[in-house]
Amino acid sequence: MEPLHNRLFPAPGMGELRSLDRQNPVLRLTPMESAVGSLVVAGTVRAVWEGPGYSTGSISAGEFRPEDLDGVQVQAPGNRPLVGYEDDLALVPLRHVRMLRRALFFPKPKQPMSVGVYNGKSVTIPAQAGHRSYYALSVIRIDDVLELRAEELPYGMEFKAIWEAFGFTMTTRLPYQGR
């Protein structure tokens, strides 16, 4: 049977677009780009993800502090977070991409985001979508490939309202009860 990514609607690849915007809102990585190295997203302030078993979490950019985590942190083998930050760079380790269902990245105010992969290819998401809107970056795993989408959002929406609009419900963390 033909792989699923060959049966999807045609979408441009990482080397075919310079930016994701209204005219070109979607691109699809190749299976190799979706599996090697890390997906690096620069210019973000917060990320939200959905992992195995529909577990969800969200964290702010910068140094990890447990109090900044909403939901749960999904740990991939090797004790790496499924979606995490190294200083201001959001990272998705692609070796374990099959654990990721989807992720959403929010830009720093009025700044563009950029996405890069191991082979040096990158794409930019503009800072502004319209007079009263901006773009968030949606990353969706379809079988063994990642699809990137520029999602237009109105200014002023709270993170929680956006999560709910995209169907994210934060997983409840249970308090630690040692023996």
Jot down its keywords:
single chain, 179 residues, mainly beta, 5-stranded antiparallel β-sheet
Could you describe the 3D structure shown?
The strands form 3 sheets. A 7-stranded antiparallel sheet has the order 1-14-13-10-3-4-5, with no helix packed on it. Strands 8-9-2-11-12 form a 5-stranded antiparallel sheet, with no helix packed on it. The relative contact order is 0.23. The protein has 2 helices and 14 strands. The chain is globular, with a radius of gyration of 16 Å. The protein is mainly beta and 179 residues long. The chain starts with a helix and ends in a 14-residue tail after the last helix.
**What's the number of helices?**
2
The helicity comes to under 10%
Mean pLDDT: 89
Question: Uncertain spans, ≥5 residues at pLDDT below 50?
Answer: none
Largest sheet: 7 strands, antiparallel
The strand line-up of the biggest sheet is 1-14-13-10-3-4-5
State the distance separating the first and last CA atoms: 51 Å
The gross shape turns out to be globular
Total strand count, please?
14
- The sequence of SSEs as H and E is HEEEEEEEEEEEEEEH
The gyration radius over C-alpha positions equals 16 Å
β-sheet strand percentage: 35-45%
Content-based structural category: mainly beta
